[in-house]
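Dear Dr. L.,

I hope this message finds you well. Following up on our conversation about the binding site, I have prepared a predicted three-dimensional model of the protein together with adenosine-5'-triphosphate. For your records, I am including the exact sequence and ligand specification that went into the calculation, followed by the structure tokens. Please feel free to forward this to your student if that is useful.
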Amino acid sequence: MHQLQPSFEGAASEPVRRLGRAIVVTSGKGGVGKTTTTANLGTALAQRGVSVALVDADVGLRNLDIVLGLENRIKHHLLDVLEERVTLDEALVPDKHSDRLVLLAAAQAREKDEVDTEKMRALIASLRERYEYVLIDCPAGIELGFRNAVAGADEAIVVCTPEVSAVRDVDRVVGLLGNRFRPQLVINRLRPQLVKKGKMLSVDDVNAILRLPLLGVIADEPEIIVTTNKGEPLALRKDAPTGAAYHAIAARIAGDDVPPPMPATKESFLERLGSMFGGKK
Amino acid sequence: MIDFLKRLFGQTGSSATAKERLRLVLMTDHLELAPDMIDAMKRDLVDVISRYVEVDRDRIEVNFEQQDRALAMLANIPILSVNRPPVNRAGNGNGNGNGHGRAAEPAQAAAVAAAPNVSSPGAQAATDSIVTRRRRRRKKNQSIPAGAKPATAH
Ligand SMILES: Nc1ncnc2c1ncn2[C@@H]1O[C@H](COP(=O)(O)OP(=O)(O)OP(=O)(O)O)[C@@H](O)[C@H]1O
Ligand SMILES: [Mg+2]
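The resulting structure of the complex is given below.
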């Protein structure tokens, strides 16, 4: 599964192995959709034909296995690998839907501070040698669990909901991350109808403050609850609008020149009338 | 027309409140994260005020306080002496070169600076305080409000 790339230095030198990208998915605030985003983007990326390892760094509160429907296949976890009880290969669990996607589950019965930051960094480094993408599902908070999840990553996706507290926490996390991770933004759980009525912060409101490159916007989607119940990420369904949105974000991560997905608003009668007469938006 | 309808139906929602709260809370957060900036601001503030009066540099307090729709900076600057020999600091904005007989003028400067809050700061007592207070609305991309503006004497 290695990506080999010919060296440009000259014919005589060794081929250079291109390292995969290690992207941490973080937010500061809990419950905004980090795990859901990680599972869906991992699924969407794998469907594009690249190899992806998902790492659940939320030690003590493991969730990613549930969202992916893999909970019954987990035999070993992150700490088993870090503490060298099993090899990485023994701990990686292949996804049900794609053999390009694997999961390294978190330990459930352990504490976040049992993770050794340097070992975590080394683990992510070895995953990057073998997978084109390593997505790390970060725990909430900005303490040791966050620092461990971030160690070894070289990029960040920050997930934010259109709420005061979530934006504030993302602002803090982005400050902690600094420039090295080039954080990009996913706005999750937007309700376009509420935005239109002036009852929810809009994408522009949020990003006027955060001013981050926008990967895309995911709607507040009842289907996500259903798919989480079933353990089948919505990104498996490209035909569903939100499934397609995850694919668009995955495409943007991969560097495709597609616009950030936005949840559609149904236009009201008055607005239709307005645009019919050439009214400004 | 559409704008009118938008105004009629749109801007009454709670998102405007959310935006406002967010703006303020982040301003406070950023201040907490910027102690260096506050120290630098204190230094500059003292430098400016020291052109007129001698202040107690070790006892200066600068605080920030949220006042419903704005963040206010409160500076408490104890004055040691107003009978100070003229200082010819570089960049003296008032620069009228004439340093003599200015004992009364600096006191006046203090009074203006203190205007909104302090009852009688103009006195000659050795440790009067100048309290400067200035509100400033945050413009969109500006993370940190500028320091209190010391009053000029005229
Ligand atoms: N776009 C969405 N629409 C509707 N529900 C969502 C959406 N995204 C996430 N959820 C739901 O919100 C809840 C929290 O999501 P998730 O577990 O992904 O958040 P998290 O940030 O990983 O939380 P934690 O900080 O606890 O790890 C879940 O029940 C999930 O199904
Ligand atoms: Mg989670």
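In brief: Chain B has one domain: 14-153.

With kind regards,
A. P.
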